[in-house]
Design brief:
Blueprint (H helix, E strand, L loop, with lengths): L3 E2 L7 H11 L4 H10 L6 H8 L5 E2 H10 L4 H4 L2
Antiparallel strand pairs: 1-2
Length: 78
């Protein structure tokens, strides 16, 4: 069973993902395709829920998003 990372009032992972994704000019559908190519299946709807911080993110999803967005955990977890 994979560990889920819960967002809280101090760390807004979903918001950070959205801001970094938008700054890189990557759309939601494009990011989902990039994750699929990395063998981390995720639907667009799941990404929307994660970015809106209404769904927890799995550790493997966070790692794959970090790699796809070419960013760091520090940026994602600030």
């Amino acid at each position: 069973m994979e560990q889920k990372i819960k967002q809280d009032e101090n760390i807004h992972i979903g918001h950070n993902i959205r801001e970094i994704r938008k700054a890189r000019g990557i759309g939601k559908t494009e990011l989902v395709r990039m994750l699929d190519l990395a063998d981390v299946p995720m639907t667009r709807e799941t990404l929307v829920k994660i970015e809106r911080e209404i769904q927890h993110i799995q550790a493997s999803q966070l790692r794959a998003i970090r790699d796809a967005l070419q960013t760091t955990y520090d940026e994602l977890l600030k």
